[in-house]
Design a protein that fits this description.
Elements (H helix, E strand, L loop, with lengths): L9 E6 H6 L13 E7 L26 H7 L9 H11 L11 H14 L4 H7 L8 E2 L1 H9 L8 E7 L2 E13 L2 E3 L19 E2 L1
Parallel strand pairs: 5-7
Antiparallel strand pairs: 1-2, 1-5, 3-7, 4-5, 5-6
Length: 207
């Protein structure tokens, strides 16, 4: 039957300077000191997350041009700003298609992200700045970052991703999890308990 579990989207945002620093090729274009959207990813609590789901062709219409100016600001292709469209398309193909029945079609997927990031202020840069955590390159504790975010997510646990280069660990990505398109925050599932190469240490996380 058609009883897909309700998606629990993970709203993942990347900090542009850190994302570029750890990318295999350098970013050519000037960066903003901002967390911008990486993607809205349907997530399962157990097992792998769904990807590349089949949708009706009508659901994959071209992106409404009126959405593009906002998407270019909040969801840029930081690795190649001459080509945002292929990044958006890839995110839709891989993740957005698995949002049915909650996500109706491609434009609804992008409208949802605009609503979450802009209207509902689920914007990690804004959330951190409310707690006086600003992108000044200082080292911070994991606890301070988590508390700052939990203050804006109804005390629910975010998912943090860090990477280290030349002995300096940076905050690269933050995911906010909800049980219904940004309504009702939930604790992000911790599918990799224990340390992974993307774990954030207790202290000295730079942002």
């Amino acid at each position: 039957g058609n009883c897909r579990p309700r998606i629990r989207p993970s709203f993942t945002q990347q900090y542009q300077p850190a994302a570029c620093k750890f990318h295999h090729t350098p970013c050519k274009d000037p960066l903003d000191k901002l967390f911008t959207v990486h993607g809205l990813w349907p997530s399962n609590f157990n097992g792998p997350d769904p990807e590349n789901c089949k949708v009706k062709p009508t659901a994959s219409q071209t992106i409404d041009t009126s959405l593009k100016p906002q998407l270019e600001i909040i969801w840029p292709n930081v690795f190649n700003r001459a080509d945002h469209e292929s990044f958006w398309q890839k995110q839709w193909d891989k993740h957005g298609t698995c949002g049915s029945p909650t996500i109706i079609d491609k434009n609804h997927y992008f409208q949802t992200v605009i609503r979450m990031y802009i209207t509902e202020k689920q914007n990690v840069s804004y959330i951190l700045s409310k707690a006086n955590i600003n992108p000044d390159g200082k080292g911070r504790t994991r606890k301070d970052i988590q508390i700052a975010i939990r203050n804006s997510t109804n005390d629910k646990e975010p998912k943090l991703k860090c990477q280290t280069k030349n002995g300096i660990t940076e905050l690269v990505e933050v995911s906010l999890c909800s049980n219904y398109l940004g309504k009702n925050f939930i604790n992000c599932p911790n599918k990799t308990p224990g340390k992974t190469r993307y774990s954030c240490p207790t202290n000295d996380i730079h942002y």
